[in-house]
Amino acid sequence: MKKIVLLLISVISLFADFKHIDYKDIKTLGKDVVLIDIRTPSEWKETGVVPGSKKIMFFNEKGKYDVNSWLKEFSKYVKDKNQPFVLVCRTGSRTNMVGNFLDKQLGFKNVYDLKGGITFGYLMQGFKTTKKDLKPNPVTGNY
Fold this sequence. Notes:
By secondary structure, the chain is an alpha/beta fold. It has helices at about 1-15, 40-45, 65-75, 95-105, 115-120, and strands at about 20, 35, 55, 85-90, 110-115. The protein has one domain: 3-Layer(aba) Sandwich (Oxidized Rhodanese, domain 1). It has 5 helices and 5 strands; from the N terminus they run αββαβαβαβα.
C-alpha cells in the first residue's frame, strides 16, 4: 500500500506546475528571478529577510488579505507570467496556497516556493538574513 501511495504522489508531482526549490538552487532560475517574502511585517522584524527579497505581505496578522492590492505591488517586480519568482513564508504553508493560486488561477508559469520556508529552508541551512531596510512603506504599510 505504501508503495502505491508513493508512486501516486510521484506521478502527480510530475504534472504539477507549482514547484518547490531549495535556496541553493535558486540561482539556476536565471538573473530575472525575484524572491517575494509574503510574511507579515512582525515576522520580517523577528527573523529578518533573505537579502534582496521583495517584502509584500499577503495575509495580515488576522489572516485577511486583499488580492488586488497584493497583485498591484507584485506586478512591480514580476513583469510577465513567464518570469520566474520564488515565494517565501515562515515554513511553506502560505506560499503553497498563494503559489497554487498564482499558478492554477492566474496562469503564472514559473512559480516556486522556498522549500521549508525561511525557517527550515534558509535559516536552518545556515544562511543569514538581514534586517537592513526594514522601514514601513508609508502608503502600503509593508516593510
